[in-house]
Task: inverse folding
């Protein structure tokens, strides 16, 4: 009996057939971290008082930690480090404080978003959920355990150089909090993308049905009402999903801006601090543990941001494709009523902005390209300032910098 239950759980985890099972790893990890203040009953999300209390305690601890670190770094006068690392640490502590505040403040709207997506989830076929589950479960589980590898290499690489001692290990929890919110956003975008794809598939089937050569009297008596009802249902479904996209953009805009800024900052500073490990331009510190950590952290942040861009870009493309298919059908049909319905559908698409954005910044491949270009530009500027700063130094000894985490 227990073996059968275990097998059932595995099937539920890796072959998701509803929204709750699709998000299962993300929800479980969030519960372990204490940042999931909800209770799931059947197909509904409800606020859980004990979990909200736990989340409130964790939120207060994070705020106290971040404010204490900012005070020690800027006002205590006990910390003396180079300017680049000072900027780096200030940004990271401010990011942690900002992340905690927006994550806690938006707990209620986030629950309503999950409920909205769960309510429209039965419209998706089980086949779509099974395809999504392979990607979603893999990235959520692998990303969670990858943080333990980062924590281990962080401790081995910087245990003697940590400005605030072992307190800096708490930053791994902040990183996990941001990672969970990013994965939740990607999961929601992937589900909405699957909804748009389902609409596209249905419209393609309608086009084939319309193009099929059948007697005119059969078409008007049997197919005509069916096509009108189907189009009206698809139009209603599209409007519902568009409203959900708008809600998603509103709730996650601030978090996405923080993620974009964090990824930008992390990649620039990690590469910069690795560059200045070259001493007098000819010697590289061959620390295997540090090199492993450096490569891992660069891959982690780049992959994390790329996954967000990929989900948003492909989701936007599926939404745009709907309008293309509708205009193709309009060009191949002569029935006035169906044309009117298709024109209303096309007009609705024009009024619905189904782009995934963050406060005016559209998250797509263009943003990724701009970020790569900006990282290269700012790295060159930092390196040029480094060269200028030490070009007149009479001391030819190696430049020693405290390494950043």
Result:
């Amino acid at each position: 009996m227990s073996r059968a239950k275990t097998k059932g759980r595995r099937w539920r985890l890796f072959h998701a057939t509803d929204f709750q099972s699709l998000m299962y790893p993300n929800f479980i990890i969030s519960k372990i971290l204490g940042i999931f203040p909800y209770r799931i009953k059947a197909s509904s999300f409800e606020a859980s008082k004990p979990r909200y209390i736990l989340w409130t305690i964790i939120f207060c601890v994070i705020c106290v930690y971040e404010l204490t670190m900012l005070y020690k770094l800027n006002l205590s006068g006990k910390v003396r480090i180079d300017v680049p690392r000072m900027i780096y640490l200030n940004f990271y502590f401010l990011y942690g404080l900002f992340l905690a505040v927006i994550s806690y403040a938006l707990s209620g709207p986030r629950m309503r978003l999950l409920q909205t997506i769960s309510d429209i989830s039965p419209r998706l076929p089980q086949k779509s959920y099974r395809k999504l589950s392979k990607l979603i479960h893999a990235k959520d589980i692998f990303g969670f355990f990858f943080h333990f590898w980062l924590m281990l290499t962080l401790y081995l690489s910087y245990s003697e150089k940590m400005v605030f001692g072992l307190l800096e290990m708490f930053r791994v929890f902040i990183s996990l909090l941001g990672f969970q919110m990013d994965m939740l956003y990607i999961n929601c975008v992937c589900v909405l993308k699957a909804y748009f794809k389902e609409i596209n598939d249905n419209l393609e089937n309608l086009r084939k049905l319309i193009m099929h050569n059948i007697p005119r009297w059969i078409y008007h008596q049997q197919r005509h009402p069916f096509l009108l009802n189907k189009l009206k249902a698809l139009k209603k479904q599209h409007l519902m999903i568009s409203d959900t996209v708008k809600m998603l953009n509103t709730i996650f805009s601030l978090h996405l801006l923080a993620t974009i800024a964090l990824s930008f900052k992390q990649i620039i500073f990690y590469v910069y601090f690795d560059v200045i490990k070259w001493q007098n331009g000819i010697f590289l510190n061959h620390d295997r543990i540090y090199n492993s950590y450096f490569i891992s952290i660069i891959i982690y942040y780049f992959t994390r941001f790329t996954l967000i861009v990929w989900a948003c870009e492909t989701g936007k493309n599926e939404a745009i494709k709907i309008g293309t298919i509708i205009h193709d059908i309009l060009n191949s049909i002569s029935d006035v009523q169906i044309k009117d319905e298709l024109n209303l559908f096309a007009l609705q698409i024009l009024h619905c902005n189904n782009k995934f954005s963050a406060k005016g910044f559209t998250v797509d491949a263009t943003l990724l390209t701009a970020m790569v270009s900006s990282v290269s530009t700012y790295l060159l500027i930092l390196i040029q300032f480094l060269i200028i700063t030490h070009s007149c130094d009479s001391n030819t000894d190696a430049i020693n910098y405290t390494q950043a985490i």
Observations:
- The longest strand covers residues 38-41.
